Amino acid sequence: MKRNRPSQETVTSHIPDIEILDFDQLGPDELPGFSPKAPEAGTNPPAQKRVRERKTPSQTSAQKALPQEDSPEKNSPQEDFPVEDFPQEDFPEENSPEEDSPQEDPDQEPQDFFSKYILRVNWHLVLLAVFLLLVGVAAYKVMTWGNRVDGNYDPGELNPDDEVEVLDTILPLINSGGEKPVDDGVTTVVAFGNSPFADDRDARDSLAAMITESSGAKVYNCAVAGSHLTALEEGLDPGLNPEDAFTLHWLVMLAISQDPTLYRECIDNLGENAPPDAREVVDTLCSIDFSLVDVVAIMYDASDYLDGRELHNPDNSMDLTAYTGNLAAGIYLLQQYFPHIRIIVMSPTYAYALDDDGNYISSDIKLYVEDGYNLSTYALMMERVAYEYRVSFLDNIYGTVNEDNAPQYLEGQLHLNKKGRQRLADRFIYALQYFDGTVYGSDAQ
Questions:
Q1: DSSP letters spanning 223-284
Q2: Which of 139, 188, 328, 398 has its CA 20 to 30 A from that of 362?
């Protein structure tokens, strides 16, 4: 069956064109099919709207392009659309004050403190404030670092002892049972060393004489002038190194053996170079009854530093050719053979170094051998040995004669004058009587 396709001329649009009218703008007479009722007394007539057909521009243009045919519905009465009444208050007028002001929702939960205040903080400003605070604290610490010193500070106006930390370690001598040795009522001291005890040994103002006069102790002066703590060779050969006979280790060996044969041969081989007090010291050591000795004092000056003698041998703690090794060996022998004797190790006092022109300079900056050490290091290493062997240590380089007061107590480069010896005697008696209940000397501490 052949379908008849409608021609283009008969195509029309039956889509109604709807237009929304505002009934407030129309009078009652303009509302078709609507009979207004009289409003009740005291009430306002409700706003009404109706729908009216309106042709869109697209439909209008299409109808103009196509021929129009009569439609049975064209002349039919216009269809009324239902009209819905809307209360006027549901549609507030535009630009009313109510729309411009924010309305609070009664159902909305109130914001907490964190959301209302914390999240609104400008964290960039907070971080900037923290950064500036840290910078300020750092600047304050830098400006107030250390101790403030007046610009007119004069070290000569102060007591040097107030500015120096003294490394004294004063220990008692006790036996394995925790008891002190029996005291016979006489304090007997044997002194080993060089110039501090050897200078002016027979004078009334010698160091040994000052100690005896001030403390009442009996002092055997076994120090040898011009000697060193450090040996040149490990062994003692009168034909090769006779001067080593007066180092600490070999003098302690003489005190133990009390055989002067080898030592007298060393003195003979030295001839005119032998120390003037060498024979006296050998004879004295051979005459002492060490069972009656209470204290051994060991003090060497800065000669080992000034002559560039080796300070320490890490491979051999008792190397006789090293400063610390010879000291350790001497202490060890004393503790083994004379355990009842209390040992007091005394560091060298301050001494000047010499520059290339022979001028005095600080011994803290001058090194006499390559990869060597200054005088303070020699003293500190001596304190280390004393600590290892649990013996007393008297710090003279800081506590007795130091770089600040050296002009008052030194005679020349390293020897003590009378005032220096008296100061050293007071310091020694301070250590000697430390455990007797009294401390001697107004200048001792």
A1: --TT--SS-SSSS--TTT-GGGGGSHHHHHHHHHH---HHHHHHHHHHGGGS-TTHHHHHHH
A2: 328
pLDDT tens digits for range 156-187: 444 544 556 788 999 987 765 556 666 778 89
Is 132 domain-assigned? Answer: no
Residue 159 confidence (pLDDT): 53
Number of domains within the chain: 1
**CA dist 61 → 46, 54, 56, 69, 261 (Å):** 38, 14, 9, 16, 148
42-77 burial: b if 16+ Cβ within 10 Å, else e: eeeeeebbbeeeeeeeeeeeeeeeeeeeeeeeeeee
* Numbers of helices and strands, H then E, in the chain: 15, 11
Q: Is the pLDDT of residue 298 over 90?
A: yes
Identify whether the C-beta of residue 240 lies closer than 8 Å to the C-beta of residue 233. yes
Position 106 scores a pLDDT of 53
Cβ proximity of 263 and 271 under 8 Å: no
Looking at the chain, how many residues does it have? Answer: 445
Specify the CATH number for the domain of residue 356.
Answer: 3.40.50.1110
| Residue partners of 362: CB distance under 8 A and separation at least 6 | 352, 353, 403
- Structural domain boundaries, residue 269: 167-432
Residue 47 lies in a domain: no
Q: What is the largest CA-CA distance in the chain?
A: 163
What are the φ and ψ backbone dihedral angles of 395, each rounded to 5 degrees? -85, 105
Distance CA 116, CA 279 (A): 100
- Would you call 421 exposed, middle or buried from its count of C-beta atoms within 10 A (0-12, 13-18, 19+)? buried
Whole-angstrom distance, CA of residue 372 vs CA of residue 360: 19
Weakest mean pLDDT among 195-204, 338-347, 362-371, 420-429: 362-371
Are 383 and 407 within 8 A, CB to CB? no
Neighbours of 317 (CB within 10 A): 15
CA 234 to chain centre: 43
Mean pLDDT is lowest, of 107-111, 121-125, 376-380, for 107-111
pLDDT mean over 149-158:
46
Q: What share of the chain is helix, strand, coil (3-state, %, to 5)?
A: 40, 10, 55
pLDDT tens per residue, range 305-321 = 999 999 999 999 999 99
Distance of CA 101 to the CA centre of its chain: 64
Distance of alpha carbon 434 from alpha carbon 421, whole angstroms: 20
